[in-house]
């Protein structure tokens, strides 16, 4: 169950970052509330995951999901660069997270 919490935490992190970008585009209370909700839920789920997973592994995987997910959302929805090198780097981040789980 800890891994489910951790993946959920990473996805909430991606949502929070996405809402941060939306808030920068259009300031509104709704965007701010969604940003706060995303990050609060992300930290809550991360803390639940860390009850059973080592801190270093949990934090690295959470950060990897957030970083890679934020980059992918930026490419898909906000017109950011889709260069092959950028996609390769995102793949490396995700591969490292999978490697930590495999070794953990």
TrEMBL record:
Subcellular location: Cell membrane
Predominant localisation class: membrane
Entry keyword Cell membrane: yes
Transmembrane segments: 29-50, 56-78, 85-103
Keyword Transmembrane part of the UniProt annotation: yes
InterPro entries cross-referenced by the UniProt entry: EmrE-like, Small_drug/metabolite_transptr, Small_multidrug_res
Pfam families reported in the protein's UniProt record: Multi_Drug_Res
Membrane topology of the entry: Multi-pass membrane protein
Keywords: Cell membrane, Membrane, Transmembrane, Transmembrane helix, Transport
Listed Gene3D superfamilies: 1.10.3730.20
GO MF term set: transmembrane transporter activity
Superkingdom of this protein's organism: Bacteria
GO cellular component: plasma membrane
PANTHER family tied to this protein: GUANIDINIUM EXPORTER, SMR FAMILY PROTON-DEPENDENT DRUG EFFLUX TRANSPORTER SUGE
Family listed: Belongs to the drug/metabolite transporter (DMT) superfamily. Small multidrug resistance (SMR) (TC 2.A.7.1) family.
Protein name: Quaternary ammonium compound-resistance protein SugE
Annotated source species: Paenibacillus pasadenensis
